[in-house]
Design a protein that fits this description.
Number of strands: 25
Distance between the termini: 54 Å
CATH architecture of the largest domain: Sandwich
Shape: elongated
Helix content: 10-25%
Radius of gyration: 31 Å
Number of domains: 3
Length: 489
């Protein structure tokens, strides 16, 4: 057993880069690193309106806890103490234990007594509760039964009665079971989450770091399509990449000392330094083309209670077939970080990123001032062979003023003035139109997401010139190319 724990310790050191990176970690993060799956956290007490409730949001009821203990042979169940009490006074705060067994002694004692077997990874029996060796709790059992139970525990293990467990401990963390085939099982229904997909993303300052829903820039956050093909139990996880806490050991020691002197929670201080406060929200949409601001202003189908400084946050829900919009976000606007979005489902799914057009790929044309309308022809030409053409088309939007920024996509809630659809498998599509003076945005697109190709947009303006009496014929209608751009899409 010691050799196994040493191997795991070395494994985590290699994953995180050094031994010092393993100091003051979270059990949930360790379980995710070890299994590649998910880990769920609950609080064992109802803290009312305290910050702890806002952070975890879930209070574990006793009946649910007993059901979860049936999975003890297939997953790791850990409990922790966040504040010292009588039973755990010698163990210190933020210490993690393993819950390895549960015994119902109703038949033996004549009343309902449920004992939990707890392991202290430090290897010391320093529990001071009623069911310690020689404690008052054992007087409720037959001496033979009590002696047998005490003989079963090994160094570092102790028994705790269920009521005492909920009184003395604060949190419980459970890793999702993993089948022999390497697939996750749901903690809630024990169904196999046999379908999984993942995509990477980033919050970039000035582009895709829109902040939480309190900001009007929330729509610029990264967005993902999730297609649910059949009624499914779905778990969606947002795992953010940690930032470097500090460069060397000496610097870290000074920072930890400063956090302690300020009186802040040590683990929360380190967590806040390494991670952004992140959240995750999901909306159901009826069709692929929809009004983005209107959709995001409505309540989501499911979302995190708040933005938290955890490395990973995730959602669990039963979802009906259809399309869903997933928006991961940071609490603060312009907060940068990389992340991994993972989806686990009992049914078939399809996950794809909604890639916004690059700033230079959104073509803006300003027509000269005047009240008259201008005739023009817009042509979208893709650079491909006939056998490899993509289905292409475009839309033309009018923006209200020149202060807008292309990457905000704030114009997408408007109806396009001109649309060249349906998308065609052709090297070139074009549309004739008459537009009045103003600012316009041209959005070229393919029918399918995540398809790449080179294209050219040509805007041809019809210019009427007065006839000039001359020996040369200059009075004919001229065609003038006013804008040509080549971009990669």
């Amino acid at each position: 057993m010691c050799h196994c724990f040493f191997c795991l310790f070395v494994f985590f050191c290699r994953v995180h880069g050094s031994y010092e990176q393993l100091w003051a970690g979270q059990v949930a993060d360790a379980l995710v690193d070890l299994t590649g799956g998910l880990a769920e956290r609950w609080t064992l007490k109802d803290p009312g309106r305290s910050m702890e409730k806002e952070r975890t949001g879930r209070v574990l009821e006793k009946m649910v806890f007993r059901r979860l203990m049936n999975l003890k042979e297939r997953c790791v169940i850990s409990c922790s103490v966040l504040s010292s009490r009588q039973g755990a006074s010698e163990l210190g705060e933020f210490h993690a234990f393993i819950v390895s067994d549960m015994l119902h002694l109703s038949r033996v004692s004549g009343k309902e007594i449920i004992l939990l077997r707890i392991r202290n990874p430090w290897g010391r029996r320093c529990w001071k509760g009623h069911w310690r060796e020689g404690g008052q709790g054992w007087s409720q059992l037959d001496p033979v039964v009590a002696s047998e139970l005490l003989s079963q525990i090994q160094e570092g293990e102790f028994w705790v009665e269920e009521e005492e467990f909920f009184k003395e401990f604060d949190e419980i963390t459970i890793g999702f079971p993993v089948t022999e085939d390497g697939q996750l099982q749901s903690l809630y229904t024990e169904k196999v989450l046999s379908h999984t997909q993942h995509l990477c993303g980033s919050w970039v300052k000035g582009q895709s770091a829109g902040g939480c829903r309190n900001n009007n820039s929330f729509p610029v956050n990264p967005k993902f399509w999730l297609r649910i093909c059949e009624q499914s139990e779905v778990c969606i996880a947002l795992l953010q990449k940690p930032r470097k806490y500090c460069a060397d050991w000496a610097g870290r020691t000074r920072n930890l000392t400063r956090l302690a002197e300020e009186g802040s929670s040590l683990t929360e201080g380190i967590q806040g330094k390494n991670y952004q406060a992140v959240g995750l929200h999901i909306w159901k949409v009826e069709k692929r083309r929809f009004n983005l601001p209107k959709t995001l202003s409505a309540p989501p189908v499911v979302g995190t209670i708040c933005h938290s400084y955890d490395r990973e946050v995730h959602l669990h829900s039963d979802l009906a077939p259809g399309y869903y919009l997933i928006v991961p976000s940071t609490f603060l606007k312009d907060a940068e970080s990389d992340f991994l979005l993972r989806v686990f489902s009992t049914g078939r799914i399809c996950l794809s990123e909604i890639k916004p057009p690059p700033t230079d790929a959104t073509l803006c044309e300003e027509l000269p001032p005047g009240t008259e309308e201008h005739s023009m022809k817009v042509t979208l030409r893709q650079h491909c062979q006939d056998s490899k053409c993509l289905p292409i088309g475009f839309h033309i939007f009018q923006v209200p003023n020149s202060s807008w920024k292309p990457h905000t996509c704030s114009f997408l809630h408007l109806e396009p003035l001109v649309s060249c659809v349906p998308h065609c498998y052709s090297q070139e599509v074009s549309q004739l139109c008459r537009l009045s003076a103003g600012n316009y945005v041209i959005v070229p697109s393919t029918y399918l997401p995540n398809t790449e190709g080179n294209f050219t947009v040509v805007i041809t303006t019809k210019i009427d010139r007065k006839r000039i009496q001359s020996q040369e014929t200059l009075g004919q209608i001229l065609q003038e190319v006013s804008f040509t751009a080549v971009m990669k899409r």
